[in-house]
Target: (2Fe-2S)-binding protein
Amino acid sequence: MPRIIFQSADGTRTEVEAASGQSLMSAAVAHGIEEIAAECGGACACGTCHCYIPEGQGITLPEAEEMELAMIECVIDPRPQSRLTCQVTVSEAMDGLVVELPASQH
Ligand code: FES
Model:
């Protein structure tokens, strides 16, 4: 099972085991990651599952679709590495991925 590391804005790291095929949002919610409220339940309509996925981790993520990009424009403090966790599907290749959580969602 791929391990995903959720890192809070204060640097606290929580490592969770995710299942391939589930979303990063589902993995976060299942493990009580507070910053991921996921109010719309994964419909790409709330932005409360926003995260930053830093580059340079040796892991290539699928590109964001138009709907995700449009929603990211509405979140607080969007950055080039912004993603919506509900739109990123976990794969075995993501083992060890670090996902940073916005301070605004704590
Ligand atoms: S859970 Fe609402 S946009 Fe991701």
